[in-house]
Amino acid sequence: MSLTRTSASNPEVIAVRPGIPLSGSVTVDGSKNAALPMLAAAAAVRRTVQLDNVPASADVQSMLALLQGAGWHVAQAVGQQGSLLVMAPETAPAAADLGRAAGIRASYYLVAALLALQGSARLPWPGGCRIGERGMDLHFKVYEAFGDRVTVQDAGYIVEAGERRTGTVSLVLPFRSRGATIAAVLRAVVAGRALRLGLPNLSPEVLAVLDALDSVGGEARVSKQLLDLKAAAIPAEITAWRVPGDKIEAGTLACAVAATGGNARIEGIRGRDLVPLQAALQRLGIPTSVRDEALLVDGGNARPTGQPLRAIATLSPGGLDADFEPPLMALALSQPGTHLFADSINPGRHGNLLPQLARLGAEIEEISPTECRLTGPQRLTGTGVEATDIRTGSALMVAALTARGITTLGGVDQLRRGHADLPGKLLHLGADICEVAP
User: Fold this and answer.
1) Which region holds residue 64: left if phi is over 0, alpha if psi is between -120 and 50, else beta?
2) pTM for the full model?
3) Rounded Cα distance, 155 and 102, in Å
4) Average pLDDT per block of 10 residues along the chain, 438 residues long
5) Before 369, cis peptide (omega within 30)?
6) Which residue, 63, 163, 168, 349, has fewest beta-carbon neighbours within 10 Å?
7) Exposed, middle or buried, 387 (CB in 10 Å: 0-12/13-18/19+)?
8) Count of beta carbons in the 10 Å neighbourhood of residue 163
9) Backbone phi and psi for residue 376, each to the nearest 5 degrees, phi listed first
10) Are strands 263-267 and 294-298 parallel, antiparallel or unpaired?
11) CA distance 347 to 104
12) Which of 49, 20, 48, 54 lies closest to 34, judged by CA?
């Protein structure tokens, strides 16, 4: 059975039963969190860009629809699955179709490209996962630093390009916002100006955008405190970029393999992107290694340490990405020790995740809205749960693999927003997963 989006059926509810330890080899898709800003960067340079390893997740499909609605041409590269050509229009369309921008948070990445194309960007407030307040104020400060004018309305916002200026734009962010960092970089590219950005976000997704721009002359130098981007003349020839493998999908699969005591090879990753996740697994006594762009998880030889895991999400370079926290929490329920989890970056995430894990019988102490602790191992019992957001859905998949009986997971459309086929990859590794007929 296939659970991919290209199959005849597209289940909204799936059933998961515990079974044999997961084993085998699986390749992750391209990263949704990297693909979205890279697509916006391809639009911003206003040259033909071939983008490889593009995932087929729903949010990426929404971004492609937005680009086409705004006038960009998007075509499948001949004979290359997952490869797209993004081509800029010569003129702005008479009426851009940007209604779908309200469905994904990453729609704000398109502001710079729209300013380059038509001098203004009129967008609805972004949507996406409901995991707490993530405002746009810092983005607006970025645009104002470039001399743009921002108008806030009930239904959305308008950014109008200011008069063309020269010279370096200097700005210090109050915290390491990924969205504001990419907004500043893309606005600098469109303006043809150098950028000095203090306290930048240096996550792998931001570095992927900088690497892509570097290939077309956008020289960037980064340190923990400063991002320096030189003004660059973008060449006219076609350039090719590649979306990095999805570190979060790899981490989720690794947690699932470890939870079942399995052994698997997870391919298509960059080892440096998984260092914090590996450190967490090894603290629990689960051996991992990276070889040839593959993460090897040896859950069959795990030696539970009973040591407390402190999974604290952070924006600091080299720290634990907030999206690793949910699957680690699901894994920790089966591991001895008292474990602490915190995510102040997405303050509404625990409000989604903890009640769903509680339905499975998990006992988790909520210290604050963004911090909790649990003591394992715990015995979970299958029941009906709901994927209220992408990462809650992926964590529930991990937990369901260790729960007694059958777990039915609804809201699979949320999973597809971030992963084209996470259930299918688990199925490939031996998980007992099936569709639930409506």
Assistant:
1) alpha
2) 0.93
3) 10
4) 40 92 97 96 92 94 92 86 89 76 89 93 79 75 97 92 93 96 96 96 96 87 94 74 97 98 97 96 97 94 96 95 97 98 94 97 97 97 96 97 96 92 96 87
5) no
6) 163
7) buried
8) 6
9) -120, 170
10) antiparallel
11) 18
12) 54
Q: How far apart are CA 67 and CA 279, in angstroms?
A: 39
Length reported for the chain: 438
What is the Cα Rg of the chain in Å?
22
Three-state secondary structure call for residue 338: strand
3-state secondary structure 294-334: EEEEEHHHCCCCCCCCEEEECCCCCCECHHHHHHHHHHHCC
Residues 159, 143: contact at Cβ < 8 Å? Answer: yes
Structure tokens at 312: 């604290």
Q: How many angstroms separate the Cα of 426 from the Cα of each of 10, 20, 71, 141, 267?
A: 16, 12, 38, 43, 14
Helix (H) or strand (E) holding 198: strand 195-198
Tokens of 287: 């051996």
